Amino acid sequence: MLRILLVTDTEKALGELRQSLGKRGHTLLPDAATAPALARLVEGQSPDLVLVDAESPLRDTLEQMAVMNRNAPRTVQMGESDADQRLLAAALALGVSVYGSHNATTAAIAPVLALIVARLTTTRPAVRVPVSERPVQVSLR
Amino acid sequence: MPTTASAGRLTPSSSKTHLRLGYVAQAECAPLVVAQRLRLAEQYGMTLELCRQPSWSALRDKLLRGELDAAQMLHGMAYGIQLGLGGQQADMAVLMTLSQNGQAITLSNALADAVMAGSSLRMKLVDTPRRRVFAHTFPTGTHALWLFYWLAAQGIHPLNDVRSVTVPPTQMAESLARGELDGYCAGEPWSTLASNSHHGTTVVTSSEIWPDHPEKALTCRLDFVKQHPDAARALIRILLEACQWLDDPALRPLAAPWLATPEVIGQPEHLILARLLGDYGKAPLRQPARPIRFFAGGEVNYPWLSDGLWFLSQFKRWGMTQEPASNVTVVKAVNQTALFAEAAGEAGVAVPPDAYRTSILMDGQPWNGINPEGYASSFSVRERSPVTGPRP
């Protein structure tokens, strides 16, 4: 079973996967919705798998840790199996980026991808506007 | 830049005539925006589609998947991808540099006040029980390396003495205001937002760290250059013309409203324009800022091999790679000096006789592209063991 972190800074319904993943026996870490929280959780709780909206600006925070720490999760590759690669492609097509640590084997990731594809395909598509893409209010003093 | 009959319209059957260009919202996307607004691609029978990306990671992924043809990228990132640092390896091409200067480091007011009152940043950090947090935008990108260089030049190890995190630039000023950050290095208008809202103080500009440093690059996959050399060469000419246009300070006020639109940056025009013109207000800078520049007779745009090798030297310095920093083949494979020289020649833009230039950085260390390995290990503050590489 995997320790999974859901990044919930956008309107993509990743938070809705929490219950289904928990029922499958995975450990769900607290959700991360800001860059400092995400960095603290990845460094402090060593998730095996991080699921994030492919359009989330927080992906750069994950990439920073992948470059600077050999044990940090990084973009997963799904080995040789066509079926596994199709699952990853399907998750990507739904706009989910998947980062895995060395504990996240292909065999462990594949059922999670299948669940993402099943759940997010049946979930009503959310409007994909990352929070940070909305205009920031600034005071004009 | 003269547009001559030799501009040569592309044959639609032989090349790409519609290019999708990726960028991330910051002032240096100006050449792309100007090229599109002034319809500079039309003389080559081409059209440009600008595609804003929410992160550098998304921009890279779309470039590698072919959803984008070319992109404005943080200088340095292309070599990180070429070396496969932290992710998938892909053969990359730097077509030209798009800008120099124009970035800044902003501190919380408390930290800035202490530094201005004469205490060294290093002493101030030692005095504090908690580890201070500094943000940048991407590990192999410019902001990380300017921040690391600046901290290290003051005897502060950016990986050990402070926490270094990546925060989306759009969120940096808010994070500083909430006390989640103690400082950050970013482009504009993301630096000016903190000082404008009085939540932070810009204390140093990137031109003080490295005068006329490379900042953003025009990049694509190497196979795009091989498959569509005409389109790649035309794109260089289009952006050379846009960069030359932007180097006239009298024209920058025309570009500012284009950049300020919600589709591009979505921030007030006057904030964008001030920093485009090198106006840092009352910022307590030790040296006057060298304003962002886009052209300088083509000096900005040439893909200097010495610039590329500097990034390799810093990747090595900070333990991001175990590759020899002196691997000039990597930089020669990525930097498209010959293609640039052809395009610049056609456009009547001077090309330097030598692909190496000499710079003096803030600590007085000269950099001329010779012996990057020795340069990387010459710094007293550096990472002694690799932070990345094959997993155990």
From TrEMBL, chain A:
InterPro entries: CheY-like_superfamily. SUPFAM superfamilies: CheY-like (SSF52172). It comes from the Bacteria. This is AmiR/NasT family two-component response regulator. The lineage of its organism: Bacteria, Pseudomonadati, Pseudomonadota, Betaproteobacteria, Neisseriales.
UniProtKB/TrEMBL annotation, chain B:
Keywords: Cell inner membrane, Cell membrane, Membrane, Signal, Transport. InterPro entries: NrtA/CpmA_ABC-bd_dom. Its main location: membrane. The keyword Glycosyltransferase does not apply. Pfam families: NMT1_2. CDD domains: PBP2_NrtA_CpmA_like (cd13553). It is found in: Endomembrane system. GO terms for cellular component: endomembrane system. PANTHER family: ALIPHATIC SULFONATES-BINDING PROTEIN-RELATED, NITRATE_NITRITE BINDING PROTEIN NRTA. This is Nitrate/nitrite transport system substrate-binding protein. It comes from Silvimonas terrae.
